[in-house]
Amino acid sequence: MRLALGALLLISLNVAATGAPLRFVVPDSWAMPMVQLERGRPTQGILYDVMLSLATQVGMPAEFHVLPRARVQNAMEHGEVDMRCYAAQSWLPNQSADYVWSIPLWTQPDLLISRQDPLTSVTAADLPRQSIGTVLSYSYPTLQPLFDTGRLHRDDARNQEQVLEKLQAGRYRYAVSNQWTLDWFNQRLMPGRQLQTVAVLQKQSVGCYLRNDPKLPVQLILRTLLSMKMSGEIDDIIRLYIGDAPSSERNGQP
Question: Which positions ≥6 away from 187 have C-beta within 8 Å?
Fold first, then answer.
C-alpha cells in the first residue's frame, strides 16, 4: 500500500515538475452558477472552482478549453483535453474503455419550469402542442418521445441562462432547467416574479471522467475528487454560489 501511494506521489511530483497541465473541457453552453465565461475564458463558478481546486491539489496547473458541446467528446477522444466534469455515463452509452470515471459528485435534475405557479402539478405528456425552452445539443430523454411525435417542439438557446431569460420574457410557457441555474437566476428576481418548478422530469448522477492515460496521475486525481466530496469541500463551493443548503441536500443527491 505504501509503495502504491509512493508511486502515485512520485507521478504527481514528476508531472508538476514538468509543468504539464490538467486540461479540462468546458462546454460553451454552461452558464452561472456552473461557470462564468468572459471573452471565451472561465473566470468563476461552481465547476470552475471545483476543477481549479482539483488541479491545485494534485500539483498540476489547470488549463481550460472552452468548446461547443457537440465537440466535447471528440476532443476527449483525440486527446485534446484530459478531463470532463458534470457528465453522466448514460449520456455516453457507446464510450470506449479508454476512460475512468469518478464517483458520482452531483445529481442532474431536469426540471420543467414556468413563470406561473399552477394550482396543480404538470405532467409533460398531458401538455397541449407547444414549444418548450431547451438548450442546443442537450438531450432530454423524458421529453424526446414528445419531440419525436411533434407533440412538443424544442426552442433551443445557446445556454441555460438564455433559456430562462426567454421564458421570463414570455417566449414560451415552459422550459427545462437544472436546479443550480434556476436557483441562481431566481436570486435576482423579486419573490412574486421568480420562476417555478412544475415537474421533475428526471434525475441523473453526474461526475467527472478522464482519459486513462499513463501520462496522467489518474488514481491520484480520482482519490482527490473522493476526498473533496467526502470532506464537504464540493458542497461548500456550491453554498458559496447558491446559499442555504446545496442542491445535493435538497434533492437527495449522493
Answer: 243
The yes/no answer on whether domain 108-203 falls in CATH 3.30.2020.30 is no
Q: Summarize pLDDT for 123-151 with one digit per residue, the tens.
A: 899 999 999 999 998 889 999 999 999 99
Distance (Å, whole) CA 65 – CA 3? 35
State the Cα angle at 51 between 45 and 55, rounded to 5°. 145
Helix, strand, coil share (%) of the chain residues, nearest 5: 40, 25, 35
* Contact criterion met (CB below 8 Å) for 221 and 58: yes
Report pLDDT digits (tens) over 23-63: 999 999 999 999 999 988 999 999 999 999 999 999 999 99
Which regions of the chain carry the CATH code 3.40.190.10? 2-107+204-250, 108-203
pTM confidence score: 0.83
* Cα 77 versus chain centre, distance: 19
